[in-house]
Amino acid sequence: MKMPLFSFQYLLVFALSILIGVFATPTSNESGSQAPGNADPHLEAQAPSIVATQTPEVKLPESSCGPWIDEVSLEPILRRWLRGEEIRSVAYCSQTAVEAKGFNPSNVIPQVVDLNEDGIDELALRYSCSPTGNCSMKIYQRVGSSYRQIFADRQMVQYFDKVGAKHSGFRDIRTRLHGSCCDGDQVVYRFNGKKYAPISCSSYSYINPQDRSSPLDRPIVRNQSCRQALDPK
Length: 233
Description:
Number of domains: 2
Helix content: 10-25%
Oligomer: single chain
Radius of gyration: 38 Å
Largest sheet: 5 strands, antiparallel
Strand order of the largest sheet: 5-6-7-8-9
Number of strands: 9
Order of helices and strands: HHEEEEEEEEEH
C-alpha cells in the first residue's frame, strides 16, 4: 500500500522542524556561561576569587662580623680573657673579639663561671650556634698566664648550670639541649681530675600530659642511656 504524497511531505516537514529546533536551541552565551533559561541552581553562586599573594622573605638581622665561616676561632676571645678584660655574656665576632650585631653562627658567646669556687672564674664559650640557640661549647680554666680546656660538649648546649656537690674539686655541670618549645634532652657532666665526662643523661618536658595548654612548673625528667643519647647509631 502506498503512502499518500501529502502524508509523506507532512512527515518530512515535521522531522525537519524538530531537527532545526534542536540545533537552534542556545546552550551558552558569548562568555561561555550556561543559558539563563537552563541555569543549574547549584552553580548560581559565584565562586570566590583567588588572589595570588607573595610570601615575604624572612631575613635574619645582618651580621657585623662578615661572612659565615665553618672554622670558628676561639683564640681572640681567650686572649681578651687572659688579659683580664671585661667579658660580657653577649655574642662576639670570632675573628676580632668585638661585640657582634646580628646573628652569625660563627659568633662566640662567652660566660664566666667559677666551677671550683676558688674565686677565679673559668670561661665557657658557646659557638657554631643554630638560630634556636643550640651551640657547641667548651670550658677553659686559667693556669698561670695560660689556660687549659676542661670541658667539651658531647651534645649541643642551649643552657647550662652548676649542680650537685664537688667532685675532684669541681661542681657537676648540667647542660640542656633545646628540642621544642617545652622539651629536650639534658646531660650531667662530672670532673674526673682532668676534664668533664658525662655521667647521666635524661629527657625533660614541661608539657602537661593532662592539659597540654597548661605547661608544668617543674619538668618531667626521664632517664635514658648516655650511650644511646650521645652516640646514636
